[in-house]
Amino acid sequence: MAAKTTQAIHCYRQVIINNRQEVQWKHLVIPLPDSVADTRSESIPTPFGGGFSYKNSGNISSVSRNRFILWRCQDDIIQLQEMCLDCNLIDNNIQLRFRNSRLLPNIAIKETDQNVTILLATDHSVHRFTLSHPKNLARNAPNHNQTTGNSNTAMSVLAGITLKDSLQHYNYAGLPGVGSTASAELLQDTSAVFAVVLPTSIAIIVLPPVGSNEGARMMEIHPGTFVQRFISGLMFGSKMIASTDSNLLPQSVSFRYLSDGKLYLFMICPRYQLRVWSIQKNDFILHLDLNTYRPAPADNDYGAVGDQQNRLSASCGDMDEYIGAFLCYPDHAQFVLLYPMFDNGKLIMKYLGSVNDTNSNIFISFTVTNENMWILWKTSKGETLLKYLPVHGIQKNSLGWSQVSLSSNESCNTDALSDADIEEYFMRFIFFPGRFSRSAIAKAIQITNHAVSGQNATLSGVYGDVNPPSLDLLVKDVISLMSYQIQLACDAYDEVSDEALRSIQESCWSKFCIGCQDFGKIEREAVGVFADNGTGLACIIRRNATSYIYPTQVVENLWDETLISSDVMTDDVAILIECVKLIKLQLTQNLQLRVEYDLHRGLDPILTIKDIAEQICGNLINATAIASETQCDLMTKLEKKLIAIGDISMAVGAVIEFLDVFEKIDDAGDTLADSEGIEQVSCGRLYSSRMAMKILSTALTDLSHTRYGICCDLLLLQSCILFFENKTILHEGDHCNTIKCLLIPRTIYLLRSYYAIYWLGQQPCSTATGDEMEFNMRQLAALEISSASGLFSSILADPNYTLSELYLAGSAGYKMRMLLMQSEVWCDRLTNSNNWLLWPDVAQACFEKLLQLFWPEQCSVPILECMVGNCQYEEAKFYINMVNGITEEGIAEREFMLGQCHLSTGNGSKALECFISASDGITSNKFFWKLLMSEIYHEKRVVSLYYMKVMRLFEQFSYFDLAITAARTAIDSVDPKDPEIPVFWSNIFKYYLELGEAKQAYNALVSNPDTERQKNCLQLFVTVLCEQLEFKTLCLFPYEGFVDNVSDIMLSRARNVNMSSNGYYDQLYSFHIYRNNFRKAACVMYECAIRLAEESVGVASLQQQAKCYLVARNSLQLVSADRRWILCPKLELPISQKSKAVDISENIAEINTMIDICIPTLKNCVAGTRIVEVNDISKDYMLVISRLQILQRDNSPKYSEGQFASEEILVYLILIGLFDTAFSLARVFDLPYTKIFEGLAYKCCSMSNDPKNGYQIDDEEVAWLKANDFSFISTIRELRPTDLAWRLLQHYLGYFHGAESSTFHACVANKLLSLNCPLPYWLSLSLKKLDVASLLRLYIQYDFLSEATQLVMDYIDAVHGINTAEFGLKNAVHADSPSVWLPYSSIDHLLKLLDNVASDAELIKLSQELKDKLGRYLEFADKISLIKIDNEKSRRMTRELQ
Fold it and tell me: Which of 198, 169, 158, 204 is nearest to 185 (CA)?
């Protein structure tokens, strides 16, 4: 449905949007039909373009809202782009190439309820592409509910174009000749009808419906008459009768449905004849001579237009159908507007009016909508010129054509260089987002490189291909090429001064920049015009860009002379503008550039303005008689115009009021009621695509730059007016003082404000990497700001975008739409039954809201939030300095943002200054209360909470010293009773600790008034120093009142840390030793040893245990004997001590005093407490040392894992051969020595029986001997290992005396004899003396009968007095000596055994000898017995006699 006609009068400007660097084209090649001859027209076609808009493109609730398709045709290639201002389209760029063909003008795109159909013709064929309608794509998409706003992307209809579909027989047809122009339309049965002008006729081709089995049908219309025949309601296969005069063929054709619902073909023929062909009647039904509307040539003075063809155009829509005709007369160009209508069933063309153009430019294209007629020209200089005229006023034509202003900032003015870096300036200009395409820069590089004598071989990009190099390669190659070119230019001179070098650099860079501009100008050549009949949006289609027409107010157009006059402006303002034009004629330099230079560097522009005004007006006022007539005339004109202004102050004030758009935005506008849900959804996506943001941003930049220029001119005018201070024109109404005190300051304020907005649109974003964004998010997280706060943009900061685009993609776009919903424009659209949006009205409202949202006094803080949130720190610094010169409003917020920028760029000191400065405004500023203070609004606490955030920021960057300064500043600033003061002291303590300043950290700890926080800080203090191994530092502090706390903390840490990396016990031991608390130190070390035994294995663990036991024992020995005990928690103990541990759980009350003396922390573990004495520690130490010695001889893991009893370790010591240690262990644990002697005896026997009896002691088998002590051997003779072993056994046996000695000797003899090893002489000798009976029993037991017999006989001899000392007898058998006893039972046993021997002669002999000797002994014993009896009787008798 056509848009509702707006009554507002709009002025327009245009902004050029180059194709984005990231546009990716989908390429398809369409071959010629087989039936078509491969011949091409010899004429070179000019590029052309156009567009298509959907029927409901202006409907608020339509899926196709603000959606349109643009095309560009060049030779055999057509580029199709579907654009949408409300969402980002996917696969919306496609390039079709029709091989060996040339595209004909008038591409047609038609819309039905279900499909979008593209109809195009080449000089050899016609084609149809049927695509799905956007509403069907939205319905079928996985996330089709786009109206929810959850997704801002949609699939383009162009994604449905495929080569397979294009080659279907029903989608194309060949032509019988070479066509020159064409038109196409859809029939009601979805067939497609084409009208193609051939060299001798007009071909009518009908493609069947999609999917049909029929083929294409064709007929020809000749310039003469013919016989018709209808087939299926259409005429085909007609019989031709007529002339073949090609001069009668139409120059332009166009299909149109009229109000009767039938299809007609409009044709404009040579000699300015309009003909209408009825498709159904198959006849010409109207012939109109357009010369009827031509004005008389004598009344007009038009320049020659040239040899250009006449054109037809028609408006699209269902409200009105206008037919526009471009007529090219030899002396002028004329546009005729007709309205087709029916009178009694007969078609007539109602003449609405015509308009002539006095320009002699080259006509490109024109289009007609229900609103305007748009005409596109190209001047003789190659510049594009777009004019428009409202359709409803074409008859009156009171104002004539209005020109669309194009404010192009493409020129690289070297006057702006001044002292700027040349390379930086030109690189910034060339690579400004969207200024030049990559292909234009690449072509400039190619040309420049070829122009240099000797090509530069350092270029890294590949040039000449279809796809230009990437942007990064282009940047690198431009710098490399220009450096090479400058170097060549400098080589021509022997010596180059700084001024000459700068001149060479400027010359080289300027030439390259001009090359980029030339290629850019070619790419921006206009090829067509498009106007959306639904929304009123107009575009200029260019080769590689698109100009979007946006509405402006009248003053901008009057100021740049694109609008001659307006009823809106007062006469005083119009005269004021004329005065400005007179003064600007005297300018010899670019005023705006000089003022911009001052603003960019923070200077006051009024000084420059006054200087220029003084030069201009001084020359005019002081003009003498010899002065030029021109100067005098100019002076007179200026004075007259100033006099003609009724009220100068009011006129200037009127312009200032127009420029001052500042209006305070209420925060309540950020949210809307739920009842406005539909409106929220509809407006929530309005102009939210990247293309729309680019258009709005570029237009806003252009608008602000235009108004900035107006402010410059107005300021210059006011300064010049002050030179007429003595004139009477300024005395009335005190205009001079008004201008000085009121108007000039306001103008400067506006000048700075518009420059700030313009700068945002001219400043590219700096690249923000993913790591930088991640770190920035952590920084904002410290402020409790999330990505949902609106600070982040929907696009990633990239050099292809400007700061204004970045802000628009974030919170500015959202706020703009929210404000737009509350505006009159939006309410007017909602009250309209059609819910129709008009681009001129809505865009104008958007620009008004955007100017308010970008106005520095109001929204500098949100803009800075967006910059900082997207890592644009340097840009934010410059913007802050610029805005600070404009307004004091929001100075605290800007200082805070500036601090964040300094912080992020590594200048922490300046950041601290800014944060402290910003604190002055936090108590009355909503920015700090809402953004920083979260939900807390207590005025007395905001200062402390603010500094909390500041500390977190510094902490994020590890600026702990500055965080300390901020915390101390906060403590000095807040109330002494503020509850956050302990938090500040805790943070000061933490930061000092991070800096490694333990002393300052301790001072902060003791300064904290909160006891609980003191304890927490103390725990951290102890932990950190322990981890840093600062033992001495930890011990040196006095800890007044905290000693027990420190001990508790360290012990708690020690118990909670795995023993594999636990150093807390060592540090706690040092802590107690430093304070002479030896018992606590011993307890710590003992506990450490116990935990090591339970939790870790290996040699290292055993070594550490040994050290712990040794240290604990030594510590206890430093105290008095009665206090050499400790209390320890009942941990899992070694097996050897489980039976020794004293369980005192039932005697808790009795040991409470002991606990107080020992370790206070054990009060919580009383139920598991036990007493440990020095001897207990020594035993544990002995066990560990024994295991370590075992591991030195055998590194088997079984010896280092688990826990062992003393008996087990003793066995292992014996097996290894560590007999010294074994005896020590047995002595400590009171274990029997018999196992040790048996083990040693076994080793001695083994060595004696070994055939290698002569090996050395270094051999592995006898290496155990080295582990024992042989210091008792004093002989200098080298002994064999076997001898050493026996000597060691003899040595150990010599330690013992008495019964023990006899027992151990017997034990050794028993072991040796059991091994069938003869007893060494020294051992048998010792046993003879100690216990001959035991020796005899052993001989008998192990069947050593010979030795036993010999022993008995020797013993009998000793009894008789022979070798008595050998058996240790004190006396032999005598009548007067003590009795001596023989082991009769053993001897009897021996004799019995000997009697049983029958085969061994030697034993028989010995047996006989023993019996003989025993018989003699018995006889002797009898005699002695009788003597003793007699003697006893004698003594008794003697006693009796006495």
Answer: 204
Q: Which amino acid is at 347?
A: L
- Token pair of 372, please? 């305007």
SS3 for 1143? strand
What is the per-residue burial (b if ≥16 Cβ within 10 Å, else e) of 143-162?
ebebeeeeeeebbbbbbbbe
Q: How many angstroms separate the CA atoms of 425 and 1416, rounded?
A: 139
Least confident of 508-517, 791-800, 1315-1324: 791-800
Alpha-carbon distances of 979 from 413, 1003, 1012, 1244, rounded to whole Å: 61, 20, 13, 83
Give me 765's structure tokens: 């974003």
The label of the residue with tokens 């300036």 reads 425
b vs e for 538-557, b when ≥16 Cβ sit within 10 Å of the residue's Cβ?
Answer: bbbbbbbbbbbbbbbbbbbb
The tens digit of pLDDT for each residue in 720-748 reads 888 766 555 555 557 778 888 899 999 99
138 HSE (CA, 13 A, CB side):
18
Range 1115-1143 burial, b when 16+ CB lie within 10 A, else e: bbeebeeeebbbbbbbbebbebbeebeee
Q: Do the strands 405-406 and 11-18 form a parallel or antiparallel pair, or are they unpaired? A: parallel
Which residues, in sequence order, are bridge partners of residue 120? 127
Residue 526 phi, psi dihedral angles, 5° rounding: -75, 135
The proportion of the chain whose per-residue pLDDT surpasses 70, expressed as a percent, equals 79
The pair of three-digit structure tokens given for residue 658, joined into one six-digit string: 């127009």
Strands (E), 19-139: 26-30, 48-53, 67-74, 77-84, 88-90, 93-98, 108-111, 115-121, 125-132
Task: Please state at what angle helix 770-782 crosses helix 942-956, rounded to 10 degrees.
Answer: 150
Q: How many CB atoms lie within 10 A of CB 924?
A: 11
């498009």: which residue's tokens?
Answer: 530
Kindly give the interhelix angle for 1099-1116 and 1078-1095, rounded to the nearest 10 degrees.
Answer: 160
| Cβ atoms of 313 and 254 closer than 8 Å | yes
Q: Quick one: three-class SS letters along 475-525?
A: HHHHHHHHHHHHHHHHHCCCCCCHHHHHHHHHHHHHHHHHHHHHHHHHHCC
Of residues 593 and 393, which shows the higher confidence score? 593
The least confident of 157-161, 290-294, 394-398, 925-929 is: 394-398
3-class state of residue 108 by DSSP: strand
1418, 1360 contact by CB (below 8 A): no
d(CA 115, CA 136): 9
Gyration radius of the chain's alpha carbons: 57
In this structure, are residues 1193 and 1213 in contact, taking their beta carbons and an 8 Å threshold? Answer: no
pLDDT digits (tens, 9 = 90+) for 1071-1127: 888 888 999 999 999 999 988 888 888 888 888 999 999 999 999 999 988 888 888
Residue-level pLDDT at 682:
56
pTM of the model: 0.75
Tokens linked to 88: 């980002």
| Length of the chain measured in residues | 1442
Please determine, for residue 126, whether its predicted confidence score (pLDDT) is greater than 90. yes
